[in-house]
Amino acid sequence: MTAKTSIRAAAVQIAPDLASREGTVDKVLAAIAEAAGKGADLVVFPETFVPWYPYFSFVLPPVLTGREHLRLYEHAVTVPSPATDAVAGAARRHGVVVVLGVNERDHGTLYNTQLVFDADGSLKLRRRKITPTFHERMIWGQGDGSGLRVVDTAVGRLGALACWEHYNPLARYALMAQHEEIHVAQFPGSLVGPIFAEQIEVTIRHHALESGCFVVNATGWLTESQIASITPDEGLQRGLRGGCMTAIVSPEGRHLVPPLTEGEGILVADLDMSLILKRKRMMDSVGHYARPELLHLVLDGRAAGPMEFAREPAAQPDLRSLPDGERSDPADRAADQRIAVVRSAAG
C-alpha cells in the first residue's frame, strides 16, 4: 500500500476538440497543469477522450459511419507517439499520475485504451477495453486479460476499467483481488440521457463499497454546437445529452465532493487513505469476507495475438557420424530395447 496518508485526486470533465487530435491533446495538457496547480497528485480524464469518443456511432446507422470512422483512424493515438510523449512529459513535469482514455490505433484496428502514466512520466499500464458495448463493437476491437492488472504508482495501487466493463463483476473482482487502493472509472458522458448518469453513480458507489477503495470517475462533455455538428436531427441530439457523472467516491460509498453533471470543470478531493482499512476491517471481499475454497476467479492474463512462433524442433544427431551399431533412429533403438526386455522376461 502507499505510504502517503492523503492523496489529492482530480477528475476532469471537459469537451474534446472534435476537429483534431492535437487540439484535444492541448486541452489535456492545459487541464493537467490546472489540476497540478490545485495540488492534485492524480488527474483522471474521460473514456477515449483523445481524440474524441465516437459519438457518431451512437446516432448514425452503420452504413453512414464510414467517413467519420476513417477520420477517427486518422486522428487516433499510437503508443508510443508524440501525443503520448507530450502527456508523459506533462506528468513528469508536474509530478502527477495521469490516467487518460484514448482511441488507440494498432495497424488496422482501433481499441478503447486506458493509459496510466506515473508521476515520473513512465507508462505503467496500457489496457484495452475487453468488450466494446453495443454500437462500439463497430468501432473497436476487443482487449484481453493482460490489461486486468493493478499497478503500483506514486499515489498507490491503481486499477482501471472503462464504462460498462463495470457491469462485468469478474473483471471488477480481478482488480479487487489485486488490492487496488484507487480505482479509476471512465465513461463517455453526453450520452443516453439522465438515466445514464444515475446508472453510473450506482455503479461507481457500489464498486467503492465492494472493493473498499476510492473511485475517481471522469465523464466527457459536449457543447450544443458540437452536438449539432454530429447530427442535425433534433430527435437524435437528445441521445447526446445527459449521462455526465464526474465524481470522487470514498471506500464508504460517499461522494467526497458534489458530482459534476453539467458543463466543464475539474473536481478535486483529498483521499484519506486510512478509510481503506476502516472499510476493509468490516468487509474485505477478497480477504476475511471471501470464501475462496467455494468460489474463486481464474484469470487468463496472457496477451492475445493473431500469431505466435512455434518452438524450434530439437536438433537431431547426424546418423552418418555415429558408429555402425548406433546409426539407427533413436526411437527404433528404444523400441529394440523394449523388445529385448520383454523377451528376457518371457524366457
From TrEMBL:
Q: Under the GO molecular function aspect, what terms does this record hold?
A: aliphatic nitrilase activity
Q: Which domain of life is it from?
A: Bacteria
PROSITE patterns the record matches: CN_HYDROLASE, NITRIL_CHT_2, PIPLC_X_DOMAIN
Disordered: annotated segments: 309-337
Limits of the CN hydrolase domain: 7-273
Note whether Hydrolase occurs among the keywords: yes
Keyword Secreted assigned to the entry: answer is no
Sorted alphabetically, which InterPro entries does this protein's record hold? C-N_Hydrolase (IPR003010), C-N_Hydrolase_sf (IPR036526), Nitrilase (IPR023919), Nitrilase/CN_hydratase_CS (IPR000132), Nitrilases_CHs (IPR044149)
- Compositional bias of kind Basic and acidic residues: 321-336
Enzyme Commission numbers on file: 3.5.5.7
- Per its UniProt record, what SUPFAM superfamilies does this chain match? Carbon-nitrogen hydrolase
Cross-referenced CDD domains: nitrilases_CHs
Keywords tagged on the record: Hydrolase
Signal sequence, renumbered to the chain: none
Top enzyme class: hydrolase
NCBIfam families per UniProt: nitrile_sll0784
Q: Which family does it belong to?
A: Belongs to the carbon-nitrogen hydrolase superfamily. Nitrilase family.
Protein name, per record = Aliphatic nitrilase
Q: Which organism is it from?
A: Labrys monachus
